[in-house]
Write a structure and sequence with these properties.
Layout lengths: L3 H8 L9 H10 L2 E4 L4 E4 L2 H9 L4 E2 L12 H9 L15 H10 L4 H6 L1 H13 L7 E2 H6 L2 H10 L6 H16 L4 H27 L5 H9 L8 H14 L2 H16 L1 H9 L4 H11 L5 E6 L3 E3 L2 E3 L4 E5 H4 L35 H18 L4 E2 L20 E3 L1
Parallel strand pairs: 2-8
Antiparallel strand pairs: 1-2, 3-5, 4-10, 5-8, 6-7, 9-10
Helix pairs in contact: 1-2, 4-11, 7-9, 7-18, 10-11, 11-13, 14-15, 16-18
This protein binds protoporphyrin IX containing FE.
Protoporphyrin IX containing FE binds next to α13, α14 and α18.
Length: 408
């Protein structure tokens, strides 16, 4: 019998997100922690191990969460330096005490209460988006609605001009492919040409808000610092903005797409939500468990440790398979079934866990629920076009179909 450990490791392609669940089920069973030579990461697949790693932020830091999978070439580093590209660790890839200081400020922006105050504006964005679809059946609902919807919501909240959505979406997609995919040397250079203007854009935006603060969260961050660099520097605010302008919509776009795919594939779920919209928040939570858009996230081991009996050396990179944790039957019985009434739904790890738990979770939950309410009400007859080929971008962390053809 072949060694199960090398078997999983040999067949696992961490960048291929088209059908990740079968190999991960095998990993949970046979090799819960294994080494992936393709990316030089230790892959962790069980819920308990991943949660313990998230909890122990002194042994496992988040310092590598934005490290490029394909290290930047000298040419790329040169381009970044000459473009004054200077984002610094603030949230996702930062460590205490700096993370603690910045996170405490950003937490004050994204409270559920503050997010609820945006609900009427979000509903308006959702209604306009859905109204734009009504006469288009059949349509790629990603291209016409879900690609831009979360960016319009986020831009409203942050006070970024709506006219810039297409440009920022393009920059954000480019940044994901550059850091989380494996571009060739030439592709890296092309992508870097787009990264430098993205950074300049956020620096200019922050400077403008500093000159003329308005009623938005970016201006609130500027007000909090009150000119005091020991509270927060302008460069730290720009670094928060570039993070938010990627993390705050690409994730939600992909999560909505995953939810639509599954709800329409099992149409009784869609019909149930059309009849009883009160069930939408629970169902969305189950969708996040079932197919999380941030399918894997990273940690860096700074001390030697043991995970599931496997020795992890100091300096090792860990790839935590959140989509696998969420299908672990030790926590979620019959994990491959959609069951929105699970008593422990919030134990899913789709938003991470611990000190880096997704700061945008209240906004993501609200905007996804509003869109689903609007869609189920306007288009209860919505259905998937049969026989379509789903495409997933090659990368290690962000999973959602690139297009989704629907009709009604
Ligand atoms: C469904 C959509 C979303 C998903 C699946 C998601 C998922 C995640 C995950 C897995 C993490 C890492 C947590 C950890 O390391 O423990 C994270 C962190 C983060 N997310 Fe989200 N996210 C979503 C939406 C958003 C939105 C809407 C925003 C902003 C408005 C946002 C901003 C952030 C930020 C800034 C962090 C870093 C927090 C820190 O390190 O302290 N996310 N998210």
């Amino acid at each position: 019998m072949p060694c199960p450990i090398s078997n999983v490791s040999a067949t696992f392609d961490p960048l291929d997100l088209s059908d990740p669940f079968p190999p991960l089920a095998q990993a949970r069973r046979d090799a819960p922690v294994f080494y992936s030579p393709e990316i030089d990461y230790w892959v962790v697949s069980r819920h308990a191990d991943i949660k313990a790693i998230f909890r122990d932020h002194e042994t496992y830091t988040a310092a590598n969460t934005i490290a490029p999978i394909a290290p930047f070439s000298d040419a790329v580093q040169q381009m970044l330096a000459s473009g004054d590209y200077s984002p610094e660790p603030v949230l996702s890839n930062n460590v205490p005490p700096s993370h603690t200081r910045i996170r405490a400020l950003v937490n004050r922006l994204f409270t559920p209460r503050r997010m609820k105050s945006f609900a009427p504006a979000i509903r308006d964005i959702a209604q306009r988006g859905v109204a734009g679809l009504i006469n288009q059946s059949p349509v790629d609902i990603v291209a016409e609605l879900t690609y831009e919807y979360p960016a319009h919501v986020l831009f409203h909240v942050l006070g970024v001009p709506a006219a810039d959505v297409p440009q920022v979406k393009a920059w954000a997609g480019n940044r994901i492919k550059l850091y989380y995919g494996r571009p060739s040397a030439d592709e890296q250079i092309e992508m870097t040409k787009n990264l430098v203007p993205f950074w300049r854009y956020v620096v200019d935006l922050v400077a403008e808000k500093a000159r003329e603060p308005q009623d938005d969260l970016t201006s609130d961050l500027i007000r909090m610092r009150a000119g005091d660099d020991s509270v927060l520097t302008l460069n730290e605010i720009a670094s928060c903005m570039i993070t938010l302008l990627v993390a705050g919509h690409e994730t939600t776009t992909a999560q909505i797409n995953n939810a639509l795919l599954h709800l329409l594939s099992q149409r009784e779920c869609w019909e149930a939500l059309s009849r009883a919209p009160d069930a939408i928040p629970q169902m969305l939570e189950e969708m996040m468990r079932f197919d999380p858009s941030v399918c894997a996230w990273r940690r860096l081991a700074v001390k030697p440790s043991t995970v599931a009996g496997v020795e992890i050396p100091a300096g090792a990179n860990l790839l935590l398979m959140l989509n696998s944790a969420n299908r672990d039957d030790a926590v979620f019985p019959e994990p491959d079934l959609i069951v929105a009434t699970r008593g422990n739904l919030k134990d899913h790890l789709a938003f991470g866990y611990g000190i880096h738990y997704c700061v945008g979770a209240p906004l993501a939950r609200l905007e996804m629920a509003i869109l689903l309410e609007t869609l189920t009400r306007a288009l209860p007859e919505l259905r998937l076009l049969p026989g379509q080929q789903l495409e997933y971008t090659r990368n290690i962390s962000f999973r959602g179909p690139e297009s989704l053809w629907v009709a009604w």
